[in-house]
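In the present case, backbone shapes were mapped to integers, as reproduced here:
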Amino acid sequence: MIVLVIWAVAIAAVIVGAAQVLGFRAAMMGREAIAKVEARWAARAGIEETLAVLEYHTEQPDPTDARQMYKDLELVADGELGSGSWEIRHVEDGVEIRGPQDEHAKINVNNATKATLLELSGMSLDVVDALVDWRDSDDNPGMMGAEYEYYVNRDIGYEPRNGPFRTIAELELVAGAYPSSVRGEDANLNGRLDPNENDGAMSEPPDDADGLLDAGWSGALTARSSGSLVSASGDNRLNLKEATAEEMEERLGVTAQQAASLQTFAKRQDAKLEMLLTQDLTTLATSGPQTGRTGRNTGATGGTGGTGGAGGTGDTGGQSGRQSGRSSSGMRGNTSAGAQNRIQALDQQQLRKIFQEATLEDGTEPILGKVNLNTVSPAILRAMLPDDPISADAIIAQRSASSSGLLAISDLRDSSRITPQALAALAPMADTQSYVFTVTSRGRSATTGLEVEITAVLDRSTLPARILEYREQ
């Protein structure tokens, strides 16, 4: 009996012990699950706070301060809930700083020139040609590039997009572009230095364990940045191709004569807003290829008469010619060169308004993003101006000297150190506004310290703002 009792007690002890172990494990798993939920929603709260700031500055922007949005984004980079906290960081020049990553601080790979791409570390001519071949619409390979036949003959399971890149990771599909070059040490493309990215050869990816994140080409290139039809004042941009002279006078602060010239210029086939930075308004309105009934309108307005004379378009050109004509001889559409010269040049305030409030885009096609001169790093800016480092340094100095930053690209005309050639080179791919941000929010549970990281790409170019990409880890 004693033996049986001892065995019964032993078995009961084992059963109770096992039940305790299982209970403890279940409790631990439950606690970890709760902590994961706490950390996840703390990270998501950081995303939502950032999203709220971006939407607020889209609806109620301050056109006199280009830095205010970034100050507000920095204020919500850290926060706490009752059950957890979050922190939002991104890398600039290898070092983590507060706030989300401005995708407009990088060069959009879809409109980058070959010369600019070749300035990136580790980039070669064959890769540049292959990148251009991937994004262009034809199947004709560049000198050292790769097109449809190259990919099909190697049976790798895909072919070139022949369209814009959609993500920076897509670069890895291009011939000659290896993940080590695209990602550098940033293996998960989250824009932050993770422990496995700063441990040398102990784990993937290979890194130099120097405490700085080398993000490879992903640190300088993006496929996410986007233009917008929302102006710096929060209204829809004024389309110069469709706007009336009265609308231009009211929104842009131009005179009736300047508005007529802008109307004529906007109807040119080659019209681009950046042309106003380096060319005279009168010249733009009276020369160059036009759309519409160019020849007939030219004859009707008396050869080269008026601001809408030679190359004027339809009624706009004729109206411009009549306005200028009255100021000289009073004859409709027969304006002298002297009258043309009296068209007042656009002043700095008018140019700023035009670049903040106007557009030549109709919104029927996606608008590629431009580099924000207020947030771009000096290294990337010098890559955009490889032959003119003095102008690049002058831009950095000018934006740093202003507490409100650069309000429009036309502000660069104030500096005598920035050459017209540099301005002309920058204008097609530079701006002073940003619309797309990558937010890497790391949430931490208050009970266990467990962390969950969420990376989201937010686009405020339209309202409501959109989440272009969402990843949890």
